[in-house]
Every structure is written in C-alpha cells, then in structure tokens.
C-alpha cells in the first residue's frame, strides 16, 4: 500500500465517525496536536457504514481492520499506511469488588490480557 502523511489527509474525501464518538474524539485530538483539523465529507454512526461508503468509492477512512478485513481480502478496499503512527489506545476495566464475574466477563478479561 501507499504510505501517506497525516498532513496529506486533508486532500482526500474523508468518511469518519460522528464527532460525539470516543474514537472520533481520539483521532481529532491526535491530529490537533499536529495542527490538523479534518472536515469529513461524511460523518457516520457506525464503522460498518463507513466500510460500506468506502466500498462505494465515496472516500477514505480509518476503521479497526476487522471491520474491513473481508473487503480488503477481496480486493474491494486497500489499506493506506500512515507515515506517522497513531498511538495505541488505552482501556480500563472496572468491576464491583464483591460481585463475582460472569463466565462471559471472565473470558473477556482473558482476551484482554493476551
């Protein structure tokens, strides 16, 4: 794939999540640190919709690879590598001290630790 600088993103029609989402805020905050403000062509509610719009050639976007994996493997979409790497996000898990975790919650914790 082609390598693109984050400063070049303003030259492309962008498809992004709505501003109120945590993911969009994370991306906007990161870009603002580099004096970049993006004005997307489309602001959508879900990553699935973003992938659909990209498949129709309506712009470029940033989604978790798993959302687009099938379309990438089929050659419908392709990845663009960024010269500057966006830092990994951190998450925190909280649970009530005196309440045992369900089997699903235990499995989720195992997945996070691996």
CATH architecture: 3-Layer(aba) Sandwich
SSE sequence, one letter per element: EEHEHHEH
Described by strand count, sense and barrel closure, the largest sheet is: 2 strands, parallel
State the assembly state of the protein chains.
Answer: single chain
Q: Total domains, how many? A: 1
The fold-level CATH name is: D-Maltodextrin-Binding Protein, domain 2
Give the neighbour order of strands across the main sheet: 1-4
Distance between the first and last residues' Cα: 29 Å
The SS-based structural class is alpha/beta
Unreliable stretches (pLDDT < 50, length at least 5) are none
SSE layout and pairing:
Layout: E1 3-4, E2 15-17, H1 22-32, E3 42-44, H2 47-55, H3 65-73, E4 81-82, H4 103-113
Parallel strand pairs: 1-4, 2-3
Description:
With 114 residues, the protein is of the alpha/beta class. The protein has one domain: Periplasmic binding protein-like II (D-Maltodextrin-Binding Protein, domain 2). Helices cover 35% and strands 9% of the residues. The protein is built from 4 helices and 4 strands, in the order E-E-H-E-H-H-E-H. The strands form 2 sheets. It has a two-stranded parallel sheet. Strand 2 (15-17), helix 1 and strand 3 form a beta-alpha-beta unit.
Describe what is shown at a glance.
With 114 residues, this protein is an alpha/beta fold. It has helices at 22-32, 47-55, 65-73, 103-113, and strands spanning 3-4, 15-17, 42-44, 81-82.
Labels describing this entry:
114 residues, alpha/beta, D-Maltodextrin-Binding Protein, domain 2, two-stranded parallel sheet
